[in-house]
Design a protein that fits this description.
The complex is a heterodimer of chains A (about 325) and B (about 550). Chain A is mostly helical. Chain A contains 13 helices and no strands. In chain A, helix 7 packs across helix 8 and helix 12 (about 275-280) packs antiparallel against helix 13. The longest helix of chain A has about 40 residues, at about 180-215. In chain B, strands 1-13-24-12-2-11-10-9 form an 8-stranded mixed β-sheet, with helices on both faces. In chain B, strands 17-23-16-22-20-21 form a 6-stranded mixed β-sheet, sandwiched between helices. Chain B has a 4-stranded antiparallel β-sheet with strand order 5-6-8-7. In chain B, helix 3 (about 125-135) crosses helix 4, helix 8 packs antiparallel against helix 10 (about 360-370) and helix 15 packs antiparallel against helix 16 (about 495-515). The longest helix of chain B is centred in the C-terminal third of the chain and has 18 residues, at about 495-515. In chain B, strand 18 (about 370) and strand 19 form a beta hairpin. Chain B is of the alpha+beta class and about 550 residues long. The chains are: A mainly alpha (about 325), B alpha+beta (about 550).
Amino acid sequence: MTRRYLVRRLLQVFPICAAILLVGFLLIHLAPGDPVLAVAGDSGDEQYYAEMRERFGLDRPLPVQLGIYAGKVVKGDFGVSYTRGRPAREVIAERVPASLLLATTALVVAVVVGIGFGVVAATRQRGILDVATSTVALGLYAAPVFWVGQLAVLFFALRLDWFPVQGMTSADRSGGGWHHILDVVHHLALPALVLASQEIGAISRLARSGLLDELGRDHIRTARAKGVRERSVLLKHAMRRALLPVVTVIGGRVGYFVSGAVVVEILFAWPGVAQLLVSSVQSRDIPIVLGIFFLVSLIVVIANLLTDLAYVWLDPRIRYR
Amino acid sequence: MKTCRRFSTAILVLALIAVGCSDDDDTETATEDTTSTTAAPTRGGTLVVAIDSDPGGLNPAITTSGATHTAAELMYNGLVELDDESEPKGELAESWEVEGEGAVYTFKLRPNVKWHDGRPFTSADVKYSFDEVLLKLHSRTRASVGAALEAIEAPDEATVVFRFKQPYAPFLQQLDVTEAPIIAKHVYEGTDPLTNPANQAPVGTGPFKIAGYTKGSEVRMDRNPDYFKEGLPYLDAVVMRVIAKPETQVSSLEGGEVGWLFDVPGPDIERLKATGNFDTLETAINPGGSSCIMTVSYNLDRPMFKDVRTRRALAQALNREQFFERVIFREGKVAAAPISSGIPFAHADDLTGMPKFDRAAAQRLLDQAGWKREGTATRTSQGVEGVPDGTKLAFEFLSFPTFVQYGELAKAQLAEVGAEVTVRAVEPPVFADTVFTKRAFDTSIISYCNGADPEIGVRRMYVSSSIGPVPFSNASAYRNPEVDALFDEAQATLTKDERSTIYRRIQEAAVRDLPYFWIVETTSTRMFSDKCKGFGPSGHFAETAYCTT
């Protein structure tokens, strides 16, 4: 891979994000609904609404608003939240750690459990374990996240009392340090598993079929004939190439983790970006919505870039120019 | 409550015995609490409360947002508080005098009240709060009080005088912590109240003071040990957890993670009650407003609805008992008058013209109005003024997504008399834009909250000066000079008896002209752990609450 390729890919991020912001800006401004309503409530006088529109710059023509907004974004300023009276960047940044924690944990769980399921199923083809893992994986893949989440709450939180129902921490903040970390992990477990559930299904199916494909190839037969241990055959010779489609799926599904997180964050009252996005869309808090659009598109673009880079590591025959 | 701490075994045992012996109160009042509060209050404990959205800010003086008011009102006070009958009782004001036939209000402030930062509360705070914040940024207070007020004076530290241009009767009902919370001048003066950092870490006078605000997650408040109401509050802390999904709120209550819900979905109420672990409090006070009536509005700009016979027929075709049973699960009551029963002096529930469910009469009236029907087909116009002959009696019914069940039931009921209804649910901002700005609707349903006085939430529905583009104003575009004049007269009349008569005349006109039809009065069912008692319905709901372990 050349440095030129990397620079070119990184430079592509800017026009893509700019295009997404432009489309987002136009969509949200052209959609019906007045952002001032969220601030003014339901019983202001006409002058009050006019003053608020002027305050937020909503009384100016759309191209002027777009120009002002673009000028600010270039300087890293996403405007001031209408409903919170604080910089949108600051409001969004407060929520990023919680979302990042949930999404990365879910991603790690999905990859580890998904590949694990795939390996078990591939090495015991048509055995009981294959049937069992495949059935669970397909079930998880087919089930909508909101349904899995609701069932998980009813069973694991309410019936078994293993996990809390909501939040990122307990309302009782009597302990600090390790107690706090364990408290967060305890709260994180169920939403992360639910968010990971669908991906576990997808990844395990791909890992299984990829491994079965690889295990039937000549170089695997040669390795076995040379007396290489089955464990090494599997992990060293078959796994790397079998993971290529899995990586493609993971990279391409970052968008899912963001959209799935909306449902999971709302269901488990997780204080992340997704909850903020939903409430901001409802109240037409444009600076927040556009800021989140920008953040999410940046994450998706970077995830795609990382996926492309991972191909090279997994299969040295791949070259970018 | 997992977090309620043990205080004293003896008190606890006594409290539990007392609670165990208490009877449910079945009497119908404006606020119905199914618990007894005869047990001796115990000090201590933490109450965890579920709120449905992040408040964003905690200054209730700059907004009417229900999310902000729900989360912040425990930290502030008004000059008065309102009792169950919406009658004012002194809070930051110790007493008051009304002079000039209702045009001058003089308040004596309570002495020794301190802000949470220890500074003394004075009349300068009241004057600043009104002049610089409430009358500029609190949309309801600005629209009502602001339009009538001439000047505010603070002749000494303990006295505030409000002078109105003419007698202004509803003022005392507009001074509670919801309509006019008082904020600290020394914190806000010289800053932009909308962006002042104190909006995130408030300094109030209320029973609880801020202990932490984790955005998107929780607002944590500790007991204010210097609160001016002696001995209150009992709880050590209140934690408001942001839980957007009603189902998750209910699960959290069942799991013991939360001790108080502001509202419970209708189908869950009986199930939760049956567990025996929870008590309820039914109230007409909601974070978004009080004494709300689900109201159908006819767009009177549409020729189809210009004839009052059509409007009356459609109203008579609606079986409101079914809305009461099937849509609000008996949480509230069938509306008996245009003004809510939550404002007893103005509520006229014996008006003869109030449409009652009568499908046969509705059919006859539609025939008379020129909407003819063949068999079971949709009616078509024959000689309806402004409507081409052959036009179907087909129209749209617009609502918030949360109110779509009203539309579905109305559609089914109106189909019986030959009206074809299309239900359309849109988000609140789109609804407001469609109904009040563009006026691009046929009929709609709105939760009009009447407030503590008709001046707060009823006037805007009927006076001709309130026709668009301001949201949630006169949706029907009702124009009646007689009603306009009556509202002005009521505003300037001081005695309740006289005002009652005027509001009765207004309701007679409303029932005669039917620009709206009033379906049901809605209430909310607060549900809470049976280990906690002493709740009130208003913004200061936890001021007198206490919990046992």
